[in-house]
Amino acid sequence: MKTEKERMLEGKLYKSSDPELVKISRKSRQLLDDFNATSHTDFDARSSIIKDVFGSVGKNPTVNKPFYCDYGINIHVGDNFYANFDCIILDVNKVTIGNNVMFAPRVAIYTATHPIDAVIRNEYYELGLPVKIGDNVWIGGSVVINPGVTIGDNTVIGSGSVVTKDIPANVVAAGNPCRVLRPITDEDKRYWTEMKKEYENT
Q: How far apart are CA 81 and CA 93, in angstroms?
């Protein structure tokens, strides 16, 4: 018979009152208390603690406080991950984030969901679906990413978006629900290269 943790990570109904899950959650919350109690200027301490919170962390993570998550161990981030203030990740299922990903303030990732049927929901069943974010992605402020979503490499999600479905690579997307507005093109590269040159020459 599968454990509640195994059921949770397989996207099946489970109960979070399971003793194993409660133990993991309490450990995460204690670490988050320590994390959120650090000085705003103590980046080294937060970087050290977040390595204990997350399941795996690449090089040079920067996570500003406050930060909140459920279990932490289901979050996996690549190199140069940056999360600005007030990030929330409900990681009842796996959250995989690539290299060079940037979160603006108040980004929320929700793998957690609940049964639509009220009778089943009121019996405290839960479930979750994984979220995956590719490399070089920028997520704007106050974006909500819903369960089961994948966001492709190099994509930009505009502020205030609610991402309910997969977003492909190399696009600018925004809205509620979030939708593709346009591709990212060579013209974007030329424009920003010229902006960089102007900076370097002044």
A: 19
User: CA–CA separation, 7 vs 27, rounded Å?
Assistant: 20
Encoded amino acid at 94, one letter: K
The pTM of this model reads 0.95
Per-residue burial over 41-78, b if 16 or more Cβ lie within 10 Å, else e, is: eeeeebeebbeebbeebbeebebbbebbbbbbbbbbbb
Q: Which of 172, 150, 148, 147 lies closest to 159 in space, CA to CA?
A: 172
Per-residue confidence at 202, pLDDT binned at 50, 70, 90?
confident
Q: How far apart, in whole angstroms, are the C-alpha atoms of residue 177 and residue 21?
A: 32
**Catalytic annotation on 114?**
yes
DSSP state letter for 153: T
Q: What is the count of structural domains for the chain? A: 1
pLDDT at residue 1 in the model: 86
Of the listed 106, 114, 132, 179, which one is catalytic?
114
Give the mean pLDDT of 27-54: 97
- The CATH number that applies at residue 155 is 2.160.10.10
Phi, psi of 31 (to 5 degrees): -65, -40
Range of the domain at 105: 4-200
Q: Report the C-alpha gap between 9 and 71 in whole angstroms.
A: 12
- Rounded mean pLDDT of the chain? 97
